[in-house]
């Protein structure tokens, strides 16, 4: 079977995206796309790379995603789909790159330090 693979990461989420020729069905962790993300408004943006190259109804997407929250998972899926499309056809890179679909967002949560409330929040200063 012919399929194209892309890995997407964001925060602590990791998405594995498999694109197979089909009718546009998107499955995330065994559930339909809408069932998995519910009414999360941002979730629609995960499929933007497919719309950018007019491939919405050309591929079925089988996605496994783990770690993080729903928002990070959406962005991980977006990157994974874009990378899978480039593995399908390298010429699509020129359409996806300028729109920022192939850029990995490197921001991660900063670790908590001892003596602080959070990563940087110091205990309240008391003059007396």
What's the quick description here?
With 128 residues, this protein is of the alpha+beta class.
Structure characterization notes:
This protein is of the alpha+beta class. The protein has a single domain (4-96), classed as Ribosomal Protein S5, domain 2 (2-Layer Sandwich). It contains four helices and five strands, in the order E-E-E-E-H-H-E-H-H. It has a five-stranded mixed beta sheet. The chain starts with a strand and ends in a 32-residue tail after the last helix. Belongs to the universal ribosomal protein uS9 family. One of its GO terms (molecular function) is rRNA binding.
Protein topology:
Blueprint lengths: L3 E7 L2 E9 L4 E3 L2 E2 H5 L10 H5 L6 E8 L3 H19 L4 H4 L32
Parallel strand pairs: 3-5
Antiparallel strand pairs: 1-2, 2-5, 3-4
Low-confidence stretches: none
Summarize the biggest pleated sheet: 5 strands, mixed
End-to-end separation: 73 Å
Helix content: 25-40%
Protein structure class: alpha+beta
Question: What is the CATH architecture descriptor?
Answer: 2-Layer Sandwich
- The chain-level mean pLDDT equals 94
Any idea of the CATH class? Alpha Beta
Number of domains: 1
* Helix and strand element order: EEEEHHEHH
Describe the strand arrangement of the main beta sheet, using strand numbers.
Answer: 1-2-5-3-4
CATH topology: Ribosomal Protein S5, domain 2
Name some characteristics of this structure.
128 residues; elongated; alpha+beta; five-stranded mixed sheet; Ribosomal Protein S5, domain 2
């Amino acid at each position: 079977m012919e399929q194209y693979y892309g890995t997407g990461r964001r925060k602590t989420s990791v998405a594995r995206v498999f694109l197979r020729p089909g009718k546009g069905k998107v499955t995330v962790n065994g559930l339909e796309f809408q069932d998995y993300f519910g009414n999360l408004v941002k979730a629609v943006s995960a499929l933007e790379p497919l719309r950018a190259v007019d491939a919405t109804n050309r591929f079925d997407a089988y996605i496994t995603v783990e770690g993080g929250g729903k928002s990070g998972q959406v962005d991980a899926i977006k990157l994974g789909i874009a990378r899978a499309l480039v593995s399908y056809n390298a010429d699509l890179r020129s359409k996806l790159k300028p729109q920022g679909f192939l850029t990995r967002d490197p921001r991660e949560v900063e670790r908590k330090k001892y003596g602080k409330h959070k990563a940087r929040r110091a205990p309240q200063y008391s003059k007396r």
